[in-house]
Prior knowledge:
Elements: E1 7-10, E2 29-32, E3 46-50, E4 61-66, E5 70-72, E6 77-79, E7 93-95, E8 107-108, E9 120-122, E10 124-125, E11 131-132, E12 137-139, E13 154-155
Antiparallel strand pairs: 1-2, 3-4, 4-6, 5-7, 8-10, 9-12, 11-13
Amino acid sequence: MCTQRGFVVTGNQRMYCLNDQTWDRPPPTCQPAAGLCQALQVPQNGRFTDRRGQRNQVGNIIRLSCSNGYRVVSPSITRCLPDLTWSSTLGGCEAVGCSIFSAATGVSVPVGIEHAVGVVLRLSCYNGGQLQGGPSNIECLGNHVWSNPISSYTCL
C-alpha cells in the first residue's frame, strides 16, 4: 500500500516468501498517478495562466486572474495533484468598484447601477438643492476611489 497521497501501487501486490528466504517476485512500487486533472471552468470575467502550457497535467499550477474592474475571490492558485484532483477550488471574479456609502445626507447618488471602475455618476441634491464640493460628474477610478470623494459633497 502507498502511504503518500497521489501515488498508486504498481506491480505485484501479492508475494510469497520462498524456502530460501527470497520473494517469489519483485515487490510492488509506488508511482505517481498518471493522467490529467479534470478541466477547470474559467469563471466569468476571469482567465487562467499556467507556466508549463499543459494546464491539466499532474504537478502543473494554475493561476486565476480577473479582467479590469474585477478581483479574484480567494484562492487564486491551484495545483493538479498526483491523485488527479486539484489542490483547491478556485474562487471566481467579482466586480470591484467605488463605495457610495460615504455620501452626505441630502446628496442623491444613483442606485440600481454598477459602481464599477470606469462608471461615471451624476450627483445631485434631493429637493432641488444646490450641490457643493466639486463637479457633479464623478468617475470610479482604477484604484477603486471616486475622481472626487463623495464625502466632500454637500447640498445647500
